[in-house]
User: Fold this.
Amino acid sequence: MNIIICDDRIDDRKNLSDLLSDYGEKKNYEFAITEYDSGEQLCEEQSALEACQLLFQDINMQGMDGLKTAMRIKEKYPKLPVVLVTAYMNYALDGYKVKASRFLLKDNLADTIEECMDDLIAEINKNCRILKFRFVEGTIKLYADDIIYIETELHKNVFYTEKGTFQIYKKLDELENEFKDMGFVRAHLSFLVYMRYITKISGYVMTLTTGKKIPVPKARYAQVKREYMLYKGEE
Amino acid sequence: MTFWVLIFIAEMLEVKGTLYFFDTFMEKRDGGYRNRYRFFVYCGVLCLAAVTGVWIGMLKCILIILVMSFLNLAYYEVSFRQSFLFSIINYTMLVLIDYVTVLLGRGGSIQEKWFLQALISKTAFIILMLFIRRFSKTRKSYGLITGKEWFQFFCVPVFTVVGFILMFYSENDDMQNVFLFLSVGLVAINLILMEFMQNTIEKEERIKIAVLTEQNQKNRIADYQDREEIYERQRRKMHDYKNQLSTIQTLIKNGHTDEALSFTQKLTESIAVEMSAINTNHPVVNAVLNQKYRSMQEKHIAVILKVGDLQEICLEEEEIVILLSNLLDNAIRESEKVLKNTGKAVIHLKLECEDHKLIFAVRNPVTEKVEIENDTIKSKRGDHHGIGLLNVKAVVDKYGGDMVLSCDENEFKAVVIL
Assistant:
C-alpha cells in the first residue's frame, strides 16, 4: 500500500512514519511510505499521487498550507482518502470543507492511529475491491461504488452503474449475498441499492442521488431505514 | 330516591370516561384546589343538564355540548373552538355507544333494566376512551406504561362487560343478583385501577422531569468547573510567562537572537494548542463538545472526530445539551470501563449537517454486549441511564427524527438523524 506523508516538520514526519510502520508490522501489511515536506512539491508529483492510496497531510505548513494542498489534490483525485493531521483542533471544521476522510490530532496520534488505520483500510479495501461480472454485454470489472443500484427485470438483473447499465443472469439473492457488508441494502424484493447513493428514505419511498425513486414495502421499511442510519453513522 | 342515586352513578361513570378523553387531548390548568373537585363539578353540572330541559327535545344535546365546552374552558388550557370540538367528539361517541347498546339489547330482558343498560354502555365508553388514550400520540407520557401493563388494565373492564352480558341473558333471578353483585364490584375495581394508573403515570412523569432538571444542573455545574479550570490554567500560564519573558530578555541581552527567536516560536505554538477547541460554528454545540472532549482527554480516552458546520441547526439550547451529553456521557462511561480492562479506548464521533439534516453518531467500545430491544436499552444500570436515553428519544420524536441503537460484543453504536 502506497502512503504519502506531507509535513514540513521532520520530527512529526518521522513520528507518524514510525507509527505507521509499527502498525503495518503488527497487522502484517506492507506499506511503502513516501515523505514530502512541502505542498507545492507534492502537487507536482502526479505519478506519486496517482499510485498513492492514502495521504496524511499536515495542515499548518510553511508556504502552501495543508488545507490548500489537500483541496487541490482532492479536486484531481476525489477518491483518494486524505487524513488531516494537526496540532490544532480549530481546523476540524476546515477539514470538513476539504472532505477529509479523517482528522487526527498530533497530541494523541499514538492512541488513535490504529483505530483510524483499521477503519481506513477497511474502507479502501471496500472501495478498491474490483468485482468481475459476466454480463450479457461481456465480462466487465466494476468497483463496488460504481454500482448505484441493481433491479430485477423479468429473468435478468440490471446493474445501473456510473459506467452505464449492464444485464446479468443471476438471482438478486445471490448478488445480495456477494455484496454483503459492502454498504448495499435490499430496499425491495427486486431492488438492491448502494447506500452511498441514497439521499433520503421517507413515506415508504427511497430517493437516490440520481432522482430515481424506489418504493420500500411496509414490511421492510423499518429494517431498511435502520440499516441506512447505521451506514450514515459510520460513513 | 333510588332513581336519582342510580342516575348519579351512571353519570359518574360517564364523566370518568369523558375526563379521560379530555385529559388525553387537552392540557390541564394548574391549581390543586380547583382540580381536586373537578370530577364532582363535572358530575353535578352534567347531571343537572341531563335531567333538566327535557322539553327542548333533540336540541338538548347542543345544550350539553355547550355546557361541557364551557366547563372545559375552566379546567383546561384551550380555546373555546378546541373545547367545543372535543366536546362534540366526546358526546357523539357517548350517544353512539348508548345507541349500539340499546340496539343490541332490543328484545331481551335488558330492555326493562335501564340502569344495567346504562352501566354496560358507560363501561364500554370508558374502555373506548382507554383505547384512544393508549394509541393517542399527543400525550407521550403514556409510553411509560408497557404493553403488558395496558393489557392488565384492560382486562378488568372487559370482564365487567362480560359479567353484565351474562347477567342479562341468565334466566335465573338468583344468578342475576350474583352477576349484578359481581359486576358492580368490578366497576368499583375498574375505577380504583384507573385512579392507580393515573397516579403511576403522574409519578413517572414527575420522576422524569426531576431527572431532567438534575441533569441540567449537573451540566451547568460541569460548565462552571470547566471555566474555573481554564482560569486556573491561565493563572499558571501567566506565572510561566513571567519566567519565559525574562529568559527571552536574557537571551537577547547576551546576543543569542536566533535562540530567542526559536524560543518565541515554540511559545506561540504552545499557546495555539492551549487555545484550540472544536469549532462547529454553533456556540452551544461547541460548549458541550469541548467540555466532553476535555473530559475524554483527562481520562485518556482517544477521540476520532468528524464534525461539520452546524450553523443551521435549529434545536433549542436545552435539547442540544440533552442530545449530546446523554449519548457522549454513556460513551465516556463505557470507554472508561474498557480502558481499565484493555488500556485503550477510542470514541468515534460524527456530527454534521447533510441536506439540512443533522447526523449525530457515536461509536464506543464496550466491555460486554448491551441488550437492545426496539432501539432502547434493556438497562441493568437502573432507571437513570434509561431515562437519559428516553430524554434523547423525546427530543428526536419532537423533531420527527429517528434514532437507532445497535451493539455487538465490542462496539456500541448510536445514530440520530433529525
